[in-house]
Amino acid sequence: MTIGLVPKDCAPISDRFGAVVSTREQVTVAGTTTYNLQPAGFERGFRVIGFRGIMTGAGAASDTVRLAAVDGETGTATNITEAIDLSALSENDWIAAASINITAAKLKQGDYLRITTASDALILCYVELIPSQEIV
Predict the structure, then answer these.
(1) How many Cα atoms are found within 13 Å in the side-chain-facing hemisphere of 105?
(2) Residue-wise DSSP of the chain
(3) 6 pLDDT higher than 50
(4) Taking the CA atoms of the chain, what radius of gyration do you get in angstroms?
(5) d(Cα 121, Cα 123) in Å, to the nearest integer?
(6) Which of 22, 69, 14 is CA-nearest to residue 41?
(7) Residue 70: strand pairing partners
(8) Closest by alpha carbon to 22, among 100, 96, 134, 129?
(9) Mean pLDDT score of the chain, rounded to an integer?
(10) What is the second-level CATH architecture of the domain 33-131?
(11) How far apart are CA 97 and CA 125, in angstroms?
(12) Cα distance between residue 69 and residue 78, in whole Å
């Protein structure tokens, strides 16, 4: 008799229940506005399921942060989140994307992610991903 979990007891990734969530993090700094996560491209398909962060400094006028998917073949960026307004926030405040563009959130092999800030926004960003079998 086998005790414990075996592969047949685990939910398949394709149904999203039990899938392992991968988190990528990026700290933004003054003077830099573009951050490429996995610029060599992801080794397989992923789906972005969340974008959030913690302010590492006080927000100022025009501070924003946004997440985009970049096509690894063409270099074309498509926004996954809206530009999140950080201007009224204080250090240590949490932010989260109000919506996710579900079409842009599908990353195929070779694609990568781009975080863009405006006006030297200071934030520790977290991108949550799950592997996807449906995305080739």
Answers:
(1) 18
(2) ---S--GGGSPPGGGSTTPPPEEEEEE--TT--EEEESTT--SS-EEEEEEEEEESS---TT-EEEEEEE-TTT--EEESS--EE-TT--TT-EEE-S---TTTTEE-TT-EEEEEEESS--EEEEEEEEE-SS--
(3) no
(4) 17
(5) 6
(6) 69
(7) 77, 112
(8) 129
(9) 88
(10) Sandwich (2.60)
(11) 11
(12) 5
C-alpha span between 57 and 124 (Å, rounded): 10
> Tokens in use for 47?
């789906």
Distant-in-sequence, close-in-space partners of 72: CB < 8 Å, separation ≥ 6: 41, 108, 109, 110, 111, 112
Q: Residue 104: left (phi > 0), alpha (psi -120 to 50), or beta?
A: alpha
Of the chain, the end-to-end C-alpha distance in Å amounts to 38
CB proximity list for 3: less than 8 A, separation 6 or greater: none
Length of the chain: 136
pLDDT tens figures, 100-134: 999 999 999 999 999 999 999 999 999 999 988 66
Q: Phi and psi (nearest 5°) for 101? A: -75, 100
